[in-house]
Design brief:
Strand content: 5-15%
Distance between the termini: 7 Å
Mean pLDDT: 95
Number of strands: 8
CATH superfamily: Histone deacetylase domain
Strand order of the largest sheet: 2-1-3-8-7-4-5-6
Protein name: Histone deacetylase
GO molecular function: histone deacetylase activity; hydrolase activity
Family: Belongs to the histone deacetylase family.
Number of domains: 1
Low-confidence stretches: none
Pfam families: Hist_deacetyl
Helix content: 40-55%
Keywords: Hydrolase
Length: about 300
């Protein structure tokens, strides 16, 4: 198991922004403490060349983001006050997801980014705590650099919020299939059109959620998409304890979700990169434990 982690994920943010960022520091500590991961499993990502970012993001937007020239409206939409450290973090987490993809193709089988899943970022604007879209950038990196081994990509987005930025970016790219299973009445208010959207009613529980996923995923993997590579966004804001989600999954149900997705990829020998996505429960322990389950499942499957 290979894990991308950059120690600058915890930024000097105002108090209201600091809490949701704590998980990026606490999760690797938990994984090391319990023995799910060892120090040798981690790598420190490096920012990719800007030319790679420009395969996905508009040049004017990227320039303004890196140089502190976002409009007030864009800054509000991003959810973060701009800083040079924030811009550095956003570029670095792209390198984490690209690095995970490289290591998976080199034989790791699975790689996980302790960050990423920034699926609300559009090609030319930020939204919802997402400034640059890491899975989109990594997918475009694969299509450009590995056209023989990677001809079809499946993005499985199981965050409670629709992957609207990702859907928009790949709207006209047949080599990337976007699948989003999310709360129907949750953010964003205006949904984009993924290749497959499964909007869920408020209060959806483990049984209904897992039954729908179990019915859908094998058809995507074996019939409709038949991918060579999978990106999985494993947001834990599907939990009943989440402040920003309206679904009702238990922590055990969330782990079963991960077992279903990662088990299906492992069974088929598919390379898979996992990014964390959202998690906003009142107790930080609930967030970290749910995310840690994703890593435990990956470690159990790929050893």
């Amino acid at each position: 198991m290979t894990i991308a982690f950059a120690p600058n994920y915890l930024l000097p943010l105002p108090p209201g922004h600091r809490f949701p960022m704590l998980k990026y520091e606490l999760l690797p500590e938990q994984l090391l403490h319990e023995g799910t991961a060892t120090a040798s499993d981690f790598f420190i990502p490096t920012p990719p060349p800007l030319a790679e970012v420009l395969r996905t993001h508009e040049a004017d937007y990227l320039h303004r983001l890196l140089h502190g020239q976002l409009t007030r409206q864009e800054e509000r939409a991003s959810g973060f006050p701009w800083s040079a450290a924030l811009a550095d973090r956003e570029i670095t987490l792209l390198g984490g997801t690209i690095g995970c993809a490289q290591r998976v193709l080199a034989g790791a089988g699975v790689a996980l980014n302790i960050a990423g899943g920034t699926h609300h970022a559009f090609a030319g604007r930020p939204e919802g705590f997402c400034l640059l879209n890491d899975q989109a950038v990594a997918a475009n990196w694969l299509l450009a650099h590995e056209p023989v081994r990677v001809r079809q990509i499946l993005i499985i987005d199981l965050d409670v919020h629709q992957g609207n930025g990702t859907a928009a970016i790949f709207r006209h790219e047949p080599r990337v299939f976007t699948f989003s299973m999310h709360g129907a009445r949750n953010f964003p208010g205006r949904k984009e059109v993924s290749d497959l959207d499964l909007p869920l009613p408020d209060g959806t529980t483990d049984a209904a959620y897992l039954a729908l996923l179990a019915d859908t995923l094998p058809r995507l993997l074996d019939e409709q998409v038949r991918p060579d590579f999978v990106f999985y966004l494993s947001g834990v804001d599907v939990l009943a304890t989440d402040k920003l989600g309206h679904l009702a999954l238990t922590r055990a149900g969330c782990r079963q979700r991960d077992e279903l997705v990662l088990g299906a990829c492992h069974q088929r020998g598919l390379p898979v990169v996992v990014c964390m996505g959202g998690g906003y429960s009142e107790r930080i322990a609930d967030i970290v434990e749910a995310h840690a389950n994703t890593y435990r499942v990956a470690a159990d499957l790929w050893g």
